[in-house]
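Late entry, evening session. Most of the bench is empty. Finally got around to the prediction I had been postponing all week. Sequence below, unchanged from the version circulated by S.P.
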Amino acid sequence: MAGVVLEVAVGDPRDVPGAAEGGADRLYAAASGPTCRLSPEPSLVSAICRESDLPVFALLRLNDSWSTTGGEFARLVGLGEDYLGCGATGVAFGFLDADLEIDTETCRLLLDRLPDVPWSFHRAIDSSLDPRRSWRRLLGLPRLVAVRTAGSPRGMTAGFDDLLATLTPDNAPLAMPGGGLTAEQVPWLVEAGVRQLHLGDQVRPGGSAKAYVDADYVRSWRSLVDALPVDRAR
């Protein structure tokens, strides 16, 4: 992977122009829930995809836990198919089992139902029992393009040092820090081999989820990463 990929979270079509004009490389479509981000309606994903040619990854998550039920699983498959039909490039999901290990069985079942689809694993990894073991399990799964992580369920402020300690030449290109990421942390992460970053409230005026993504805010992050000593050919 060349350069640093900026993934920007969008929850409304009106977020898309700011993300695209500011220099985002990928969009992450999700809906606000009572306690966490959840799967958006296919109509929302369709509207987001119509606003830009940027790749769109849509979230597959129906509850605030890191597990799913049989009924939910069938609905996740249907949503995934709908998202792809609406123009999404890929999906984002992640599951843990009762032992807080990566639930590779459920991940593989979903991947089997959505063949040839690129995907990212979301921050469930931060709640797993052993992040290093979790990384080894994830690296064995096909078509994985990113793992969003903050190093801790409490976000980058608490998890930054632990996240740096878990990065290796094998997993760093897949790691996508997000969850309170700050500009000061970026040079350290890039030096460690990170080539993807996830931006949410950082690119909204006042850090408010009620504000739309602002092109100038995204552009400041774009300028930051493009100035770092990595291959800039994107």
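Two things to note before I forget:
The first helix runs from residue 16 to 22.
The CA atoms of residues 167 and 192 lie 7 Å apart.
Will write this up properly tomorrow.
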